[in-house]
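> Could you send the ABC-type sugar transport system, permease component prediction when you get a chance?

Sure thing. Input:
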Amino acid sequence: MTASVASFPDVAVRTPRFAVGSYGFYIAISVAALIWSSPLFILFFTALKSANDFAQNGTFSLPQTLELSNFAKAWDIGIKTYFMNSLVLTLIKVPTGVFICSLAAFALTKMRLRGAQVIFTVFVLGLVVPMQMTLVPLTTLYQHLGLIDSLPGLFFLYLGFGLPLGILILRGYFRSIPDEMIEAAFIDGCSWWDVYWRIVMPVSKPAIVSLLILDGISTWNEFILAQIFIRTQANRTLPLGVVQFSTEFSTAYELLAAGQIITIAPLILLYLFFQRYFVHGMAGAIK
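Output:
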């Protein structure tokens, strides 16, 4: 072995061109980040242009003057109502959905239920069935229940479609919690509710925050169900309401872009504040 190494004394170990820490690596991720974020920059610049500026100079030019009034116009035209509808729906649905998912995941992982694997499989099947296949029976059901064109009806739809993914994520994280911790809690006199609320939930804070972010983004951006089940302008949610700036004959691109900026701003702020929990929680959920 010694002789074979000595026969190649001048062989230099080359660093791969795109190894982590090399110049090629940083140039590659910088170009990828620029390409990935370019639609956001174009959207922001369009929101700051006047209608004439956009018509004369096109999409990829910088604004000649900053038209901050586009945001106020979009807000007054109808974004305010749609924003409040989406905000109320998200603030009620997301915590409720995460709470139900955490209860189900806790029962399936820690309470040793008979048939827990079968129940979990049934929940996961909800991820496999395409949403489009359920629209006709759901529409018929909602017509009989009188829930068409109502925010409570939309709430129950979002709640049902969000359960499979939430249970899948939290079940994966709860399984990483040692059973010895649960047994120690019982020795100290805790009930099942105490174990869930005082032991499992605080330990699972990263996964809970991750699910809150994922479910919040999904609920905030949801379009298909809102388009099918919401009929009047007063009950429109934000993604559905923004479409009004584009009609059959014309599109107010500057107002459409301003409405889109208002739509995504809360999501960006939410992710920036909780990104540490989000990365940690997703890493634990896929173990």
